[in-house]
Design a protein that fits this description.
This protein has about 575 residues and is α/β, with parallel strands linked by helices. It folds into four domains: about 90 residues, Arginyl tRNA synthetase N-terminal domain (Gyrase A, domain 2, 2-Layer Sandwich); about 170 residues, HUPs (Rossmann fold); about 80 residues, no CATH class; about 130 residues, Isoleucyl-tRNA Synthetase, Domain 1 (Orthogonal Bundle). The protein contains 20 helices and 15 strands.
Length: about 575
């Protein structure tokens, strides 16, 4: 149960009652009405802006409308107190049993606690990673992979029908460069002295593996042949082999895609012409001459007629070219075709997770998506900032195999999948992230993955000890939910835990609506902090310990609380793609 949504629904009903009584006008728009935790915990448990947003259309003073609501809310059995704050906010304190009942909700639902029908099965396509198949994934790709995967899981938990997709950029100049680079390594594998790799080609050591594999497969078949023969063979072989590595690395990170889409296959199938024809039918393509880009000197600029898309009609800064001077399509034209294809496959809600260097791409692609779908599709582009890899505060050296960067697999192999996934979600995607190998593995409160996992491990430890000390007690969640007298939970720390867990359904919905999976990591850290506070109080005050000799009723209630905490942590970690640990070892 989402207690905040429940009260939001109830307050709307109270407003309808007030309208029926003639106290306020009927038909007021309450779409901006919210019920959420107050900014200051001392102000209560819930706060609503109902009077603030409805006062003007109701032609009333906010506090006057608030007083009408307060009078209605005071009669509720689950409301301990209600008061007006500031210019007209209504703050409520709920009875302790409201929060205790949420513990039963957790035990009954298990890790499905927090599942929502918010999305109502709406199809959402989340495209992420989509690294050019020209080399192994690096750490920044890992951040996009974790962010996209956690966002997809979050949207699924919130009730959306999610498709996880990887777009293979296997058309264009960069894969031809890959083919030429592979040909050099192929000749090298056959014994030829190739010398230094020419500028403009890929120098990474990883291409030696590709060249050797090609030589093993084909022998000297391509030696002495024309580029028109060897280039497609080398390019396709390298793409296939590198995509194999990418899939393996994503698998090591716990990422499984539903769809791999090929740019080349899309282009070959005529999808670009189809998309541009749809735009042309709407009168959105014309031949024109663009103004010189900002910063260009007159002698650097050659004005020429171009095929342009009316991107500026849909919020972009300028119109965008669809064809190059040689008549071939631009990357933008291909991207329009790809997003049109995703829309035609049934997703009107599209999310692209991209690197920070794609900032200039956002407006034009959002404009194209709106245009090509006739306004039916919306595109949200989430940019992931850089990851700074360090060891004890010092930058980590580059990978020899990759040549210019640290591979994602290097990071996973050093600290493990769960650490990588959790730490990548401890900052907003649009903020740079410091990933210090020493700090992300230390056992301290400053390491959030350890702190959260330690809370889960402590919960499981208590339950294991209880199974030994009280073998007759049935610890199954259903039995604890039925047997526990939760009224025995009355300490400040116990109620803080119950209240924190009760916010989990709200966190899920809010994070899903905002497309911000980092909120899950923040919530789990706060929940872990509340639990550790209770644990530490128990060390100082024996009456607050979980297993109380001679008081089976209180012990059972506290075990129900502990089991619920472990369950909510596991629920949150599952969204992040992290496995909860049963015990931690030094």
């Amino acid at each position: 149960m989402n207690i905040f949504k429940a009260f939001e629904t109830d307050i709307r009903k109270l407003l309808e009652e007030l309208a029926a009584e003639g106290a306020i006008p009927a038909g007021l728009d309450s779409s901006r009405l919210t019920v959420e935790p107050p900014r200051e915990a001392s102000h209560g448990d819930l706060s609503t802006n109902a009077a603030m947003i409805l006062a003007k259309p109701a032609k009333m003073a906010p506090r006057a409308l608030a007083e009408l609501l307060v009078a209605k809310l005071k009669g509720r059995a689950d409301v301990a107190s209600v008061e007006i704050a500031g210019p007209g906010f209504v703050n409520l304190r709920l009875t302790p049993d409201v929060w205790r009942d949420r513990i039963r909700d957790v035990l009954t639902a298990g890790t499905a606690y927090g599942d929502s029908e918010l999305g109502a099965g709406t199809p959402v396509n989340v495209e992420y990673v989509s690294a050019n198949p020209t080399g192994p994934l690096h750490a920044a790709h890992g951040r996009g992979a974790v962010f996209g995967d956690a966002l997809a899981a979050l949207l699924q938990k919130a009730g959306y029908a999610v498709t996880r997709e990887y777009y293979i950029n296997d058309a264009g100049a960069q894969v031809d460069v890959l083919g030429r680079s592979t040909f050099i390594r192929y000749r090298e594998a056959l014994g030829e002295q190739v010398g230094e790799i020419p500028a403009g080609l890929y120098p990474g050591e990883y291409l030696k593996e590709v060249g050797q594999a090609l030589a093993t497969r084909d022998g000297n078949r391509w030696v002495g042949t024309d580029e028109s023969e060897w280039l497609p063979a080398c390019r396709d072989f390298a793409i296939g082999m590198i995509m194999g590595w990418i899939r393996e690395d994503l698998g090591a990170l716990g990422v499984t895609m539903d769809v791999y889409s090929s740019e080349r296959a899309l282009v070959t199938a005529g999808a670009v012409q189809t998309a541009l024809a749809a735009l042309e039918e709407r009168g959105l393509i014309y031949t024109g001459v663009l103004e010189p880009p900002k910063g260009k000197k007159p002698d650097d600029w050659e004005p020429r007629p171009q095929t342009l898309f009316k991107s500026s009609d849909f919020g972009d800064d300028v119109d965008r070219p669809l064809k190059k001077s040689d008549g071939s399509f631009t990357y933008f034209a291909n991207d329009i075709a790809y997003h049109y294809d995703k829309y035609r496959r049934g997703a009107a809600s599209l999310i692209d997770v991209l690197g920070a260097d794609h900032g200039g791409y956002v407006k034009r692609m959002q404009a194209a998506t709106r245009a090509i779908s006739g306004g039916e599709a919306e595109l949200d582009v989430k940019l992931c900032q850089l990851v700074h890899l360090m060891q004890n505060g010092q930058p980590v050296k580059m990978s020899k195999r990759a040549g210019t960067f640290v591979t994602l697999r290097d990071v996973i192999d050093q600290v493990g999948r769960d650490v990588v996934r959790f730490i990548m979600l401890t900052r907003r995607n649009d903020q740079t992230l410091d990933f210090d190998f020493a700090k992300v593995t230390e056992q301290s409160k400053d390491n959030p993955v350890f702190y959260v996992q330690y809370a889960h491990a402590r919960c499981r430890s208590v339950l294991r000890h209880a199974a030994t000390a009280l073998p007759q007690l049935d610890q199954t969640p259903a039995s604890l939910a039925a047997a526990a007298n939760l009224a025995r939970l009355d300490s400040e720390e116990e109620m803080a835990l119950a209240k924190r867990m009760a916010t989990w359904p709200r966190v899920v919905e809010a994070a899903a609506e905002a497309h911000e999976p980092h909120r899950i990591a923040f919530f789990l850290y706060d929940l872990a902090s509340d639990f550790h506070a209770l644990w530490n109080r128990g060390r100082d005050d024996a009456s607050l310990r979980f297993l109380i000799e001679g008081d089976a009723e209180l012990t059972t209630a506290r075990l129900a609380l502990i089991a619920a905490v472990a369950t909510v942590i596991a629920s949150g970690l599952s969204v992040m793609g992290v496995e909860p640990v049963e015990e931690l070892r030094s």
